[in-house]
Specification:
Blueprint (H helix, E strand, L loop, with lengths): L3 H24 L6 H8 L3 H7 L12 H13 L7 H18 L1 H16 L1 H25 L5 H24 L7 H17 L8
Helix pairs in contact: 1-2, 1-6, 4-5, 4-7, 5-8, 5-9, 6-7, 6-8, 7-8, 8-9
Length: 205
């Protein structure tokens, strides 16, 4: 359970992110300054930079809560179970909780995915930030299981999350308002194994 200071920090990050998202949607990423975001969030620019080092990171980046859960699991799980399947279980449970608990949160994630798809600069920033998470996850895996393919495991885990989010956004934009993000992620994990094994794809779902 985060302490009061950490909860306040997260709340402030959320307020800044929402202000940035609304500005990017209304006037475009390139036309929005950090000063604009700070003004709409009711803070100073110095306060903004205490929470986000760049303009891009106000909206893009791997979910911090999900990253914390994955890294905590890698650090604490029984050694025999540390690997891709365990990470996938953590991610799927997180996505199910996110979808069930807070419609506003899911809506914000969807709006951010649309921005990333529509803006090449934000796409590049998102990929670069994913790379930071991949490196941290690979280091954590290597520390627990030194001779494991830690980099490949980390790359695969984060790539599958990205594919699932993009597929979810595309389905919702195509009119499937009931698209289930956790189920889409589960199917993406299954499809990954189909690709790796060379088996015929399952077209029943």
């Amino acid at each position: 359970m985060p302490d009061l200071r950490e909860r306040r920090r997260r709340d402030m990050c959320s307020e800044i992110s929402l202000a940035a998202l609304e500005l990017f949607e209304r006037q475009g990423f390139a036309s929005t300054t950090v000063g604009d975001i700070a003004r709409d969030a009711g803070i100073s620019q110095s306060t903004y930079f205490r929470h986000f080092p760049t303009k891009e990171q106000s909206v893009v980046g791997f979910d911090a809560g999900l990253e914390r859960e994955i890294l905590a699991w890698v650090t604490e799980a029984d050694l025999a179970g540390v690997g891709l399947a365990g990470i996938e279980d953590i991610v799927e449970r997180f996505l199910r909780r996110m979808s069930a608990a807070n419609t506003a949160s899911s809506d914000r994630v969807m709006r951010i995915r649309r921005l990333i798809v529509s803006d090449a600069h934000l796409r590049s920033a998102a990929i670069a930030l994913d790379e930071v998470v991949i490196a941290r996850l690979a280091d954590a895996l290597a520390a627990r299981v030194p001779r494991s393919p830690s980099r490949l495991t980390a790359e695969t885990a984060i790539m599958t999350v990205r594919v699932a989010f993009d597929s979810w956004a595309a389905r919702v934009d195509d009119g499937d308002q009931d698209a289930d993000l956790a189920e889409i992620y589960r199917v993406a994990c299954r499809d990954l194994r189909t690709v790796v094994t060379g088996a015929a794809p399952d077209v029943t779902t």
